[in-house]
Automatic annotation (TrEMBL):
Residues 100-158, 170-194 are annotated as: Disordered. It comes from Acrocarpospora macrocephala. This is Cation-transporting P-type ATPase B. The chain holds residues 399 to 785 of 858 of the full protein. It comes from the Bacteria. It is found in: Cell membrane. Belongs to the cation transport ATPase (P-type) (TC 3.A.3) family. Type IB subfamily.
Length: 387
């Protein structure tokens, strides 16, 4: 939380979990007529679940997941968390022998990464880094929990040509994968990336096992082969987010993830409308996924602004202000900070990043979007009482 933040109104405000920067904030609520809502983490849970890994022809699904996870475990993004959690939940050793075509030569590097560069996993204090491979696989057989999806454990023994079929039918990992206890018992380790760079709103970049790896928006990774283009289009049509994985200048796989709308978001949107505000959805995610979420919570399709780069979120707010609107914005991410500061009234989710909280005028401590409407209603009522 920000040091300048103060809890206004020991009564109602505190009860509601509203943190206000200063009394002058109240004034900003008066004329607000438009409320811009960030999608991921604000309207949705911001907890992504891995749905599928689709390798390009000739690529290995688990190798692609390994490279992606190795890079993403340096990132805090919800997509990154979904990828690393799924990787860790798989039994170790899966990354060998699952190439889509038998024609490709085995990569000598494939298994090496697991034995030479195992990091100590801070969350469990494991010391696999020094363990010889034999010990690692032994540990795996004893402590890897059975994957909830039946049949997945057999994946390594299936012929290569079945790999693609498996990839397209990989079910979403269930909740236990995210839970602490199961994470503590999954010993699958990740090599640490070198030269890691977070390309805000685009993806991540770094060197894993000597390869320059990219994970992120498909256009970041470059031109995709047709089978991956199809995978991206299918995922987006289903309202999902698709990221591409590439290394050495070539796109290798598409990873699809899904988020869920918070159960309170639709009510929150209707409460905001009741205050006379027009809700607008703003996101760096793709149009189709954004429209799906908008429909679910009751935001008009023409009020969806998608595919927005972090630097452009602030411009989206400026454009609305240029139309003569008085704009409130609710967000949670580092990528929302500038837009929150630009808005006439910035509201941060208390469950979000410090950057967002510091840029905002007001924090919704519990991260409940319904409180945005409560806060504005309370502020307006307080103003009426003061004046
Ligand atoms: P939002 O505006 O919904 O909070 P972001 O601006 O954080 O979304 O991300 C926009 C897009 O950038 C994502 O949908 C994804 O395609 C890509 N992206 C950002 N960070 C990552 C990452 N760590 N790994 C993969 N893709 C990423
Ligand atoms: Mg967000």
């Amino acid at each position: 939380a920000t040091p300048t933040a103060l809890l206004v109104g020991t009564g109602r405000g505190a009860q509601l979990g509203i943190l206000i920067k200063g009394p002058e904030v109240l004034e900003s609520t008066r004329a607000v007529d438009t409320i811009v809502l960030d999608k991921t983490g604000t309207v949705t849970e911001g907890k992504m679940t891995l749905i599928d890994v689709i390798p390009a022809l000739g690529e290995n699904r688990d190798e692609a997941l390994s490279f992606a996870a190795a890079l993403e475990h340096a990132s805090e993004h919800p997509i990154a968390k979904a990828i690393t959690a799924s990787f860790r939940a798989l039994p170790a050793g899966l990354e060998t022998g699952k190439t889509n075509t038998a024609a490709l030569p085995a990569r000598p590097e494939a298994g090496k990464a697991n034995t030479t560069s195992l990091p100590v996993r801070p969350e469990t204090g494991e010391t696999n880094a020094t363990s010889p491979p034999a010990e690692i696989s032994k540990a795996n057989t004893t402590s890897v929990p059975a994957r909830p999806q039946t049949g997945e454990a057999n994946a390594t023994s299936l012929p290569a040509e079945v790999g693609k079929a498996i990839a397209t039918s990989l079910p979403a990992p269930r909740k236990p994968i995210d839970a602490e206890p199961s994470r503590a018992t999954t010993p699958r380790a990740l090599p640490s990336p070198e030269g890691f760079a977070n390309l805000e709103g685009l993806g991540v970049r770094g060197v894993v096992d000597g390869r320059a790896v990219l994970v992120g928006r498909p256009e970041l990774v470059g031109s995709l082969p047709p089978e991956l283009e199809v995978a991206v289009a299918d995922a987006q049509a289903a309202g999902r987010t698709a990221v591409a994985v590439g290394w050495d200048g070539k796109a290798r796989a598409v990873i699809t993830v899904a988020d869920t709308v918070k159960p309170t978001s639709a009510e929150a949107v209707s409460n905001l409308r009741a205050l006379g505000l027009t809700p607008i959805l703003l996101t760096g995610d793709n149009q189709a996924a954004a429209r799906e979420v908008a429909a679910e919570v009751g935001i008009n399709q023409e009020d969806v602004i998608a595919d927005v780069l972090p630097a452009d979120k602030v411009d989206a707010v400026k454009r609305l202000q240029a139309e003569g609107r008085v704009v409130a914005m609710v967000g949670d991410g580092v990528n929302d900070a500038a837009a929150l500061a630009q808005a006439d009234l910035g509201l941060a989710m208390g469950t979000g990043t410090d950057a967002a909280i510091q840029a905002a005028d007001l924090t919704l401590v519990r991260g409940d979007l319904r409180v945005a409407a409560d806060a504005i209603r309370l502020a307006r009522r307080t103003l009426r009482v003061i004046k």
